[in-house]
Amino acid sequence: MSSTELPGVRSASEAFSQVGAVHVAEGEHLRLAVLPGLELAVRSRPPLRTGLPPALFVHGLGGSSTNWTDLMAQLEDSVDGEALDLPGFGWSPPPADRDYSVTALARAVIRHLDAAGRGPVHLFGNSLGGAVSTRVAAVRPDLVRTLTLVSPALPELRVQKSAVPTALLAVPGMGPLVGRLTRGLSAEERTRGVTALCYGDPSRVTPEGFAHAVAEMERRMALPYFWDAMARSSRGIVDAYTLGGQHGLWRQAQRVLAPTLLVYGGRDQLVSYRMARKAAAAFRGSRLLTLPEAGHVAMMEYPGVVAQAVRELLYDTDPDAPDTRDAPGIRDTEDGRG
Question: Has this prediction a pTM greater than 0.85?
Answer without folding.
Answer: yes
